[in-house]
Amino acid sequence: MPPQLPQNPPWRARSAGPQHRYICAEDLWRPVREPAGLDIVEPGPTMDPLYDLPFEHGLRDQGNTEQPDVIGVGVLPGYQRDEIGAAFVSTCSRAILDAGRVPYYSTDLSNLRSQSVAIRCGFVPAWTEAYVYVPRSERVAGDYLGLKRSRST
Fold first, then answer.
1. Tens digits of per-residue pLDDT, 20-51?
2. Residues whose CB falls within 8 Å of the CB of residue 56, separated by 6 or more in sequence, listed in order
3. Mean pLDDT, to the nearest integer, of 107-120?
4. CA nearest to 72, candidates 82, 80, 60, 83
């Protein structure tokens, strides 16, 4: 029987802090095989029962989106050392490279396991994004850099 997922999973990202961005080129990509007993399949009839699972999951539109440009990979803590995430990222990256595009990978600055997955699959650090929260009362329309806000010193 598959493990029961919690209603509010603790493994779901809750932050909007610094994000590492990685890219992978054709000559850097590394294959990571899925663990024994796990098959990575493309959307189709074999996956149809998975769309109606009784818990929140990431399958959307039965794989029929025109531009599936964002893929989230979350592996339950008890399975994180089994290379499931790395196998999935490697397989998706190969498909993106085969389509003539450059895949990129994003993870929180503090998520060392996720960074390890990126590096294991051949991704290299490309840039980091940081977010700054501006309280609603201090926001000025169109002032994305804070140049029009009053500054108190």
1. 899 999 999 999 988 888 777 776 777 777 76
2. 5, 9
3. 90
4. 60
CB atoms within 10 A of CB 20: 20
Residues near 131 by beta carbon (within 8 Å), at least 6 away in sequence: 16, 17, 18
Q: With contact defined as beta carbons under 8 Å apart, do 35 and 87 qualify?
A: yes
The C-alpha atoms of residue 92 and residue 119 are separated, in whole angstroms, by 15
Compute the distance between CA of residue 94 and CA of residue 79 in angstroms, rounded to an integer: 23
Check if the beta carbon of residue 28 is closer than 8 Å to that of residue 75: no
Average pLDDT over residues 98-104: 91
**DSSP symbol at 25:** -
Among the residue ranges 3-7, 78-82, 138-142, 143-147, the one predicted with the least confidence is 3-7
Supply the pTM of this predicted model: 0.64
Around 56, how many Cα atoms within 13 Å sit in the side-chain half-sphere? 7
Query: In 10 A of CB 44, how many CB atoms?
Result: 9
